[in-house]
Records
---
Amino acid sequence: MVGINTTVEEPYYEIEVSGEVDASSSIHLDEAIQKASEQHKKILIDLSKLGYISSAGLGVFISYIDDFKKKDIRLALFGLNEKVAQVFEILGLNELIIICSTKDEAKEKINAA
Amino acid sequence: MSQKVKIRIWFLAGLLSWLLFIFFDLYFILLDKYEMKEAYTSVLPQVFLSTFILSTLFYYRYKITKAESINFLDLLWKVFVTGLITTIASLMIRLFFTLFEARAITQNPITINFFYHIYVALVVIYLVSTFVVWKRLILYQKSKNLIQLWNFFEYALILSLIFDFVGHKFNTDFFNMALVFLTGFGIVLSFNLKWVAYLNFKQKWKSILFILLSGIYLYHFLLNMINFSGTEVLVFDLIDRVFIIAILIFIFLYAGISVLVTLFNLPTSSVFERKLKEAVDFQKLSQSTPSGQSESETYDILLDSSMSAVFADAAWLEVKEGDHEIICTRNISEDKIEEIKQQITNDDVKRVIDMNLTNGTPPGRVFTSLSKGEFKSVFALPIMVKNQQIAAMVLLQEVSDAFNREMVNIIRTFVNQASLTLENSKLIREAIENERYKEQLNIAKNVQKSLLPTDLEGNHGFDIEAYSMAADEVGGDYYDITPFEDGKYGLIIGDVSGKGTSAAFHMAQMKGIFHSLSQLNLSPADLIKQTNSALAKCLEKSSFITASYYLIDVEKQHIDFVRAGHCPTLLYRAADGTACFMKTKGMGLGIIRNSGYHNYVHSNALKYEPGDLLILHTDGVTEATNRDHVQYGEENLKTSLLRHATKSPSEVKEGLIDDLYTFLDGKKLDDDYTLVILKFK
């Protein structure tokens, strides 16, 4: 079960993901990111309430990496708990996606990139 | 004793009784003629007549089978035929007397009595057989009370046989009392005519005919009886027997009442027939699937049954299921249907016909009238399957206001049954399809099993054990080991993102890629790079694979390895009894699908000592959660390993799995998981 909340705080589009992202709920995450990327170039994803992410959920982020690079859309994740952060790290995604601990840091890095 | 033997015995008993009866009576006449009375007792012929009657009764009881709704006419036919044969026989006796009317032979008491005895046999046979048939008809759909009453009547009749021994003459007080008593019984019993209701119109007419003819035979026998009685030379007279008269009256009564009741039932028989047809139609509808009929046959049965139930002049049934559209029509052209559709103004009916019902509740009003055109009354009903309208049935009548509430109920029942039948057939189809998928998956499961190495052979460098389990039939975990010519071993473990069928396909692709690349004896870093570029072309966009590759040199006790995003391998050092996860840098396969990936491939190396353990696993193990949503985690795996590390590889494997299952406490794993255990020598 996943909960997705979106808020627009120009120029940022913020997606808050809560609960668990598994194979079936990853579709909602995908839809949210897809929608965000249609209008905005700076996407912040708040994962502080995310308890678990499966490989399918990771796949969603991975599928946008190339696309966003081409369209110059910037994506930053923040607030990951230790376990979730480790999942990203093991897979090596921390080297491809901006992952920070706070929202301010995320904004800073998005603008710097 | 079988039925046949019983019938034969009673037949012989009857025949013998009658022969003895005739013999003694004639013998008595001879004695009388020569005035030698002393040797004679008049009881004997009486006894034999009674046994003859009883034998006949038992004979027919076994001979005439129980009444069923299908054989009422057969029973009546039997009465008719028996009557015909006995009447013809008695007519022949009459003919004999007419032919030789003035001769001495017809005046001779012996001749008269001889023929009279034959005549008695005919009367008894006809009366008793008819009596048994009446009994069967009366006891059709019997109640307990009715059976008691009937048994009482039968016992009373048998008692009357004994009563007749006393020899009360016809029309004496005792005789009349007994007769009134028995007749009273007969009247009460004669009003049990349930069988009449089950006859259809034609059968009713036939029954009336048969019963009337049986009545005529009876009248004929009665006339003859009186006629013989008038000769006044009879040693014995049927008219003086209460039994015979009572049974005769009873048969007359029942025949009369039956004819009247059947006659009065004639006009309503069509209603009964219709109700019966409705029931049969209903049954047909409900059984139309199990017997393997197609859906269109169900529609046909529904349409025909509905039409006949409400006397519709025309009808159509329109089915819309996805793209395919069927239309069944009766007495109406498709052009006309369009015309009628245009004319309908009632919203509810319109919605049914246009098949716009989506919320699942059929509308209340389902009939309407039309002002012009051939048909004045329209009756539309939706056919719903799983709360979706799949069809509309429209019944038409030429007269206005032809449909009423009762008809709506009948048709609703039909439609509901048809819906149920259609739903069932759909479910059956789906079940069959599911079964097929399951079978396919089973095949896939077996195929996939063969993709993993079946027996891992140890060598002088290390022993190896592995365990893999998929959450679904097929999974995305992969491991393999390849020996190289230079004494090295290539060991790979991989995990495709997601699970199930798509993961299984990618796993198979990975095996292909790994197998071809491993022939080239590449360094771990090169192998991972090549694998990534090969997978880049065939992996789905959102799919990726994590893998670790180990190139083990058993001679130098040296391992080169690359971790491509796969969960870190657990290394146990026997020297100090510690274990650690080798969290080296690395990125999953298929995440970056160009040469940029090369920057993220990091080569690592380690030395090992005998007794060291390498535990390769997939995230299904560390991410397994118990009922309290707690993950098994790396710590638990490590603790578990430390507990079993000194055991043999297969015991280590068992120990690790046992500990995992103990943690899960019965909860099913929802991801694929794999364990590969290497113990160095």
Note: The mean pLDDT of chain B is 86.
---
Amino acid sequence: MTHETTTGIDNRKMALWVMIGSECMLFGSLIINYLIQVHQIAGVENPDLIRPAQVINVPVTSLSTFVLLMSSLAMVLSLNGLQHGDIAQFRKWCFGTAGLGAIFLGFQAYEFTEFYWEGLGLTANNFGAAFFLLTGTHGAHVLVGVIWLLIMGGWSYRTSFQSEHHSILLEVAGLYWHFVDVIWIIIFTVVYLFVLAP
Amino acid sequence: MEKAATKHEKNIVYIKIAVLLAVITAIEVAYPYLTEDIKGLHQLYMPILGGLSAIKFFIVVAYYMHLKFDPAVLKRIFAFSLSLAVLFVSALLLLFEVVEF
């Protein structure tokens, strides 16, 4: 299962880190797009224009941020269990991580619905478009992570599953999951907390 | 931490890191309300929040993503791409006058 490589690093792990590098650029461009759009509508005098401070709900998003942070803890506990051959710990926290990810997605669905009813759709204005593009792309990443972890957890019930062989696959899934978490740390600050700026 | 620690010891370290992350997040959320009447601190809102989120970012990358204990080549890949993204974002922030010198 594990192949010898010139770098001494598993190819899948190396590939994931390269992908994380490209994702830094992707999210960097989405974040800067959001900041530019918000900056530009700040100078527009139109009372009907929906602005971030009118719709952003910091308390609710703080709660969803906490959920995502705790999912990262669940992820490392799962990997730690598998690396030590503790399948029960692995399964419990792997499904726990997926569950917390699903809760985060639930918060996001709630937030999107609230915004929609307040009149901020994808095409309402540049702020709406940039907001949904950024947070929606992040949400899509979370969804991929949830599916990935459910597959990993389900896989462990097969007789061919061996902790020493499959821990590298969980490590790769974990790297992806933590990356999704660190991107949210930036999005939470830029999109939500900066709204409270004096 | 990586080599000698047992499963239980690692679990404890990870839980402590999670508590630290939760505390930093709580400070971030409470900061604007706590410093509302303190003029100097209130004006430093964005730099302080940016700094706190950067600390959280690097804690997760170093300890949860294990980059602190990984080979240098992975650190270089991440540092290069992150620097490129930061440079790109900074250039556009200045170009569109979102921030000014």
Note: The helical segments of chain A are 11-42, 52-55, 58-83, 87-117, 126-155, 163-192.
